[in-house]
Amino acid sequence: MADPLSFTAVDGIGEVAAGDDLAALVAPLVDLVDGDVVVVTSKIVSKSLGLATTRDKDELLAEQTDRVVARRDATTIVRTHHGLTMAAAGIDNSNTAPGTLLPLPPDPDGEARSIRARLRELTGRTVGVVVSDTAGRAWRVGQTDIAIGCAGLLPVEYFAGRDDTHGQPLVVTAPAVADEVAGAAELASGKLGGRPVVVVRGLAPHLLTVEDGPGAAAILRDEDGDLFGLGSRDAVVAALADAGDVVRGFPATAATVDDLVEIADVPEGVAVVVDGVETLTVVATPRHAVEAGMLAQRLVTLATAHGRGLQIGVRISA
Fold this sequence. Notes:
Elements: E1 6-9, H1 22-26, E2 37-41, H2 42-48, H3 57-64, E3 65-72, E4 75-80, E5 85-87, H4 108-123, E6 128-137, E7 140-151, H5 177-189, E8 197-201, H6 232-239, H7 257-264, E9 270-276, E10 279-284, H8 289-305, E11 311-316
Parallel strand pairs: 2-6, 10-11
Antiparallel strand pairs: 1-8, 2-8, 3-4, 4-5, 6-7, 9-10
Helix pairs in contact: 7-8
């Protein structure tokens, strides 16, 4: 019979300051055993790294942003330089001094590896480490904790190639183990309990790794595989932009210029001239000027959605 799974919040951590050794704070407060997973909030990792700041939030957000995914009123969803997609780049002002902001640590996987190595040095135990943070989810109300860094733990378990209990083959099932651990740990720690470290015990041994492993970076979806790389309104604005600039986040689909012209459905009285590898001109008489403009806009939209930086012009000839 498998060992019971337990989640124990560690009491007595206290306020973390810049320069604190997190592993040294945790080690005396809990008797770790091999195979435990120590979940540490990103907030205390950022505090220990001295990242707390009183800088302007907009300035800090711009610094943390790789690209904006969506904006609505005061809410900005961005993709960070880590590859995470989060509101306000994960910048937080809760559970810290008034007027202070905490950005995410720049290398969460690296921090997880460092804490793991230090815990081994202090306790002699081989444990996994997860660095967690709170995030919202598309199509779901509320937030939950996710793993933004991990070491010594399989971040994703792939079931493809196995059969379910009815003998049917599994194709895409892949539990995000590190995220599940982070979310469950939050139930034990609580948002307001002042207990930013949770020890998870009883996790199936095959989910633990002797080496540090690929880290939580393995959970991040590559932008080329992201079907929802922009907010709905932002996607429309980008797709209809006059410049027709390529916008990262759209699914990359191989399409030739001829394919795009065919999909655009060239109306009668209008022609498309290919002037170069990435340049098109829509040609029409004054009688069909409106149709020419509509076709040009469709081509801009299609080019953007297919990751093509086409230059599309319109020429009205007598």
